[in-house]
Amino acid sequence: MSLGFVMLVHEALDRAADVARHLHQAGKPVVIHADLRVSDTDFSWLKRKLSDCEDIIFSDRKRCDWGSWSIVEATQIASKLMLDRFDRVKHVYLASGSCLPLRPIDELQAYVDARAETDFIESVTIDEVDWTMGGLDQERFTMRFPFSWKRQRRLFDAYVELQRRLGLKRKIPDGITPHLGSQWWCLSRATLSAILGSSDRELYERYFRQVWIPDESFFQTLARRYSSAIESRSLTLSKFDFQGKPHVFYDDHLQLLRRSDCFVARKIWPEAQGLYDAFLVAEPSEAKRVEPNPLKIDKLFSRATERRMRGRAGLLMQGRYPKPENDIYPTANRYSVFQGFDFLFEEFEDWLSRRTGNRVHGHLFSRERVAFAGGAQLFNGCLSDSAALRDYNPQAFLSNLIWNTRGEHQCFMFGPSDAQEVMPFISADQNAQLSIISGAWAIPLFHSDRPFTEIRKEAAFLQRVEAKQLSALRQSPVKARVKMWSLAEFIEDPMERLQMILDELGGGVQRRLSEVPKMADLSGFGAFLQKLKNQGMSPYLMGDFPMFDEVTQAERQDDPRPFLVK
Predict the structure, then answer these.
(1) What value does the mean pLDDT take over residues 3-11?
(2) pLDDT digits (tens, 9 = 90+) for 220-244
(3) Residue 391, exposed/middle/buried by CB under 10 A (0-12, 13-18, 19+)?
(4) Count of CB atoms situated within 10 Å of the CB of 469
(5) At what angle do helices 201-208 and 218-226 cross, to 10 degrees?
(6) What is the gyration radius of the CA atoms in the chain, in angstroms?
């Protein structure tokens, strides 16, 4: 018994010629159908290129359009020529000009010979397949599609909608149940002859001419009617992305293709010289009985599809901007935001950087300028300290900063006087760690020499901003890890609060804290808050501060740095 190949070619004729010659050298007959769109010059070149190969012949040519009946008709013409000219052929393998044998042809021949009555064609009912694209499942078999989806898209869509509105449906011929599957099959001579020689062929052809993408349903449906044994799978490795477009294999897919143990793969890039050199080689003397297993590489394709659809955490690209409902992290790494700490502690940024080894910035969202660590004017990824550039898209600014410092934990200060537009983005980010001392913004005002009327107005404004921010963090769905204290709560036990924060930061922190950074002088702060109340402003975000705190502050005069007592 022998195996014959039908090849449908329309481009990269040099590669198709190389594959056809390889099949001929293995003793297999080949029938080539060249798309009528191939120029006469190129077609003549192809015939001359293979003129010395006795068992390579060419069928009559048809113009083939994507998803049209013409592809089925071209396949029928070439297949009938194969059956008529080569009596010894017992199985016909349908391939394209971009297909490439991955294993010696003798192994494929031995595999088919061991299953002499079996047809290898993917054939599933529409209810059992989930890879159809374009929103047409049952409708592809009950509507008419006289217009090309690619060349006449508006007419195609309009006619589909018209049929839906009018409730027009075609009758499926008796005796068949529509099935779908890959276009690339390997059918036995008996089954293929029955399909091409059926007395009902004219009826079936008239029906399938108006089916959408009939090359994926004509043979797949009729094989179910005439075959005695079907293995619903293709022997050709072909992968498709989430849009239904075929994956293209390049030179760097060499080991991947070898691992699949498949007999043939499509679609091969014409310039993948390494793949053609590796696989179009001489046959071994003995065929190996290895079952083709495309599942070995399915996991890799699934990951690639997921990466293409969802992208990577924190990487925003102009070609694929993430949708709001996408659950992928908007940033690439964990980071920490501190609100109020730089007001309560002197030189807090330097202390935190030394203690954790992390990059600690100032107020990245200050309205004046971006306060990068070390006062830099330009940061990783060419991020500028310009507030105007940052505010054009503050969310993208933060995502870019975290992306360009992957592997390094970033910390920055924040406050109610900063640009607030980025806060909803931070609160919705699972990578964010947000630590807030509410009311700490009043400490710089307390030490200010400005007129008290100005201080009161600014205090009222900052409190409104922070109150709105804290209310949103308490009410809306928040994915960030948030810790909040009032100023009064925090200074009751600053050691324990800081230890809790540093434990979450991790990094180089291995021991318990023995001291905290120098705390701002709060002598008279309670009286300052009372004065704000007396002038009509109610400072409530700081917590309960006693109006008279001389005793407490006197205890701090000798050493303003609180120590842990063991």
Answers:
(1) 94
(2) 999 999 998 999 888 998 887 766 7
(3) middle
(4) 20
(5) 150
(6) 36
Residue 566 binned pLDDT confidence (cut-offs 50, 70, 90): very low
Mean pLDDT (whole number) for 334-340: 94
Tell me whether strands 119-120 and 230-231 are parallel, antiparallel or unpaired.
parallel
**CA distances for 85 relative to 30, 31, 202, 286, angstroms:** 11, 10, 23, 29
DSSP code at position 339: E
Q: Report which listed range, 284-293, 439-448, 511-520, is most confident.
A: 439-448
Q: Number of C-alpha atoms within 13 angstroms, CB side, residue 25?
A: 14
Q: How far is CA 348 from the centre of its chain?
A: 40
Dist. CA 391–CA 40, nearest whole Å: 60
**How much is the pLDDT for 511?**
59
**Angle at the Cα of 145 (from 144 to 149), degrees rounded to 5?**
160
Q: How far apart are CA 5 and CA 92, in angstroms?
A: 6
Mark out the alpha helices in 52-150 (DSSP H runs).
69-85, 105-113, 139-142
* DSSP string over 411-433: EEEE-TTS--TTHHHHHT-TTEE
Question: How far apart (Å, rounded) are the C-alpha atoms in residues 375 and 389?
Answer: 17
DSSP state, residue 213: S
Residue with tokens 């550039």: 389
Alpha carbon distance 57, 46 (integer Å): 11
Spatial distance between the Cα atoms of 188 and 233, rounded to a whole number of angstroms: 14
Q: Where are the alpha helices (DSSP H) in 114-181?
A: 139-142, 153-166
